[in-house]
Amino acid sequence: AGETQTYLYDMSEGNAQMRGLLGGKGANLAQMKRLGIPVPDGFTVSTAACIATTEAGGEWPEGLWEDVLASLARLEERTGRTLGGERPLLLSVRSGAVVSMPGMMDTILNLGIGEDTVEALGAEADNPRFAWDSYRRFLQMYGEVVEGVAPHAYEDELTALKARRGVEQDTDLRTEDLQELVQTYLEVSRRELGRDLPTDPRDQLRGAISAVFNSWDTPRARVYRRANGIPDDLGTAVNVMQMVFGNRGDTSATGVCFTRNPSTGAKELYGEFLVNAQGEDVVAGIRTPKPLGEMEEVLPEAYAQLVQTMHDLEAHYKDMQDIEFTVEDGTLYLLQTRNGKRTAAAALRVARDLVEEGVLTREEALQRVEPGQLDQLLHPAIDPEHGRSPVTKGLPASPGAAVGEVVFDADTAAARGGAGEPVVLVRYETTPDDIHGVIVAQGVLTAHGGMTSHAAVVARGMGKPCVAGASGIRINTADRTLTIGEHTFAEGDLITLDGSTGEVYGEALELVPPQINEDFEAIVTWADEVRRLGVRANADTGEDAAKARELGAEGIGLCRTEHMFMASDRLPAVRQMILAETEEDRAAALETILPMQQEDFEAIFTAMRGLPVTVRLLDPPLHEFLPDLVEQSLLVQRLELTDGDPAELTTARALLGQVKRLHEQNPMLGTRGCRLAMLYPEIPEMQTRAIIRAALAVREREGETAGVEIMVPLVAYASELRAQRAVVERAVAEELESAGAELDVTVGTMIELPRAAVVADQIAQHADFFSFGTNDLTQTGIGISRDDAEGGFLSAYVSEEVIPHNPFESIDRDGVGGLVRLGAEGGRAAKPDLKLGVCGEHGGDPASIGLFEELGLSYVSCSPYRVPIARFAAARAVL
Ligand code: PEP
Ligand code: MG
Fold first, then answer.
1. Which of 105, 122, 481, 685 could form a disulfide with 215 if both were Cys (CB 3.0 to 4.6 A apart)?
2. Atom in ligand 1 nearest the alpha carbon of residue 619
3. 560 ligand 1 Cβ < 6 A
């Protein structure tokens, strides 16, 4: 080795902590050796050697080969065998990355067998057939993996030989057959490569180690790493071990097992084995393995030892283990142990059981579950056994799976969904006009719009699956069809959405129902004991509020009153209010709306009795409430051309005039939020009256009401909040006076514009609380449109790794997170006890919750179905 770098470790030198250098497999093998568990002897070439080789374009670092030879010599001495010698040492050469990448990288077994050693090996085992079997396996593996010969070149010959012999199983081939096969394989290699395979086992060893190094950087390995967020510069280790043989006869076997059932988490024996076989036979599915329990009869001693070892390993690692083993002539060896992959349901059950068994503390158990696993269990999911491929993929906008018939407009969805048919609403994008269709649909699929698009926000709020921004779909409005690649779907055809992954399937898949069970409750309750952050919900209806409370919300952090306006019985009145040209018209519209609002608030306050509810005053991007300019123009034109009903034409023209007047190029930066309320203070005044009347009515009826917090949206200037606060306070005072009642009401503001974050100290003078609107803060802080960016450059930015993730999904720590920090510091500088919440979509994102915990905010608020995840993530953030 170079003076500074050690590339080689004998198995006995390592331990489980050396994962970075030895890879997961190498570190765990070394650890098992330390624990006195039988593993084959060997050595590990470190990840550092792989990295150095990759960096040098495949050239091994100086001294590495000499080190390998030295390690090999020591191994030969310890085992009393020699590579290529009379008592032959056979080796396995296996990859072992730091993070497991199942099946992605290469392995070579039986290295060291050849013309000179096959007889000796057969004689030693008193089983020539086994030796020739190992030989032909080696030739195929080396040819494929190291030399790149296509697998079928060998497989075809094997199939032909079995056909000639009239046998089905490889195990039915006799020694002579295998000898013949070896000759054939040598010829195949010569034919395919134009030369012989190397025959010196040392050359083969060098080739095998190089092949494993190279397999780190294949396109498929890179794709896998990208998909799983594994860095490209970790490298893989190479484990070189003495072969143990599961194919030495009927007292030999190979198998895999889990210490618990990885589907259910149940504490039971789970695994399979094959007598007289090597590991690849199990993987390749050539022979059907037997349930592990049957091993007790065939190989009782090895079985007893295996069961004990499984127990020991689980106790040592304090987690469910996934184990590979081989029995050679009745002697058990472990080839690998690792923490077992498991379903979400199993993850919770295992974590909970390990606490009950006294193995883990509750805090440790919380660290064994991933937030995404809770999420999976909260929603119906596609049966994991489906084995089908998606036809396209969009953004995973709202989790859960939905199956239904394609419909293209909300009215059809409402009619058919209302009649109990399962429908999936497919739209270019949704608007508030579609809400009645969304409500009855199983799920929503849009071609355009991102994680905070209307469809996404509304669907998440309802716990309804949604795939948004699926730019690969074409909706053909003329013939009412949907085209995805080469598939075309007519209205009524079945599709399946997976809102947790963004995948869309062109057929009906089986779903499994949500699984909120006792394990789930236990884990989330433990999280409550640990977390510091409060968790509230974003909810706009009594029903959502009740759901949120059931899922553990400690209040409402954001009630978007504009969503209440979207119901079809209100939209006309709301339009009338927005479009009113005179004060009288507006007053009349408000008059109609007030009782409706009051009714809504009563439902919410009733559901949230005793808990705080933040009601946000109207924040309408006007375009969401008005007819589309282009559509309205077309309507007028059509009426003109067809000599339609003159009255209808007049109305349409008038509406077009108003739409033109209010049209904004950039409605998200237009007359939104408090800006509308600044122009028409009668709107916040009406809303405040409705809030107070509702609170008093609920208290009267229920004996208790919710804590009333009124929030002003999209504030940039302290003067805006001062003015709005005055309007609100006046209305509160008048209502309370006329009712002869008292009620605590606080008034606060959203911090969702960069200017507000910068002047937070000024704004705080007029605020009882802040709530960070990280959706708009992302939009305005980075300067990217919530509605358009995700279909466009943003996805390219993410896939090209210009930025690490979509900032609407998970907060941009440095930039937008910096604005939140600034706002929090400014607010607290002015008012040390200022309550600080977050109500953007990031309030339900585990990584963002980590940042909010660091910043010491008071609570997060998220959609009801994310509440358990937020409770859990808030606990993880302090652990
Ligand atoms: C926000 O901007 O983060 C927010 C919560 O408000 P909305 O999404 O309604 O604009
Ligand atoms: Mg906002």
1. 105
2. 9
3. yes
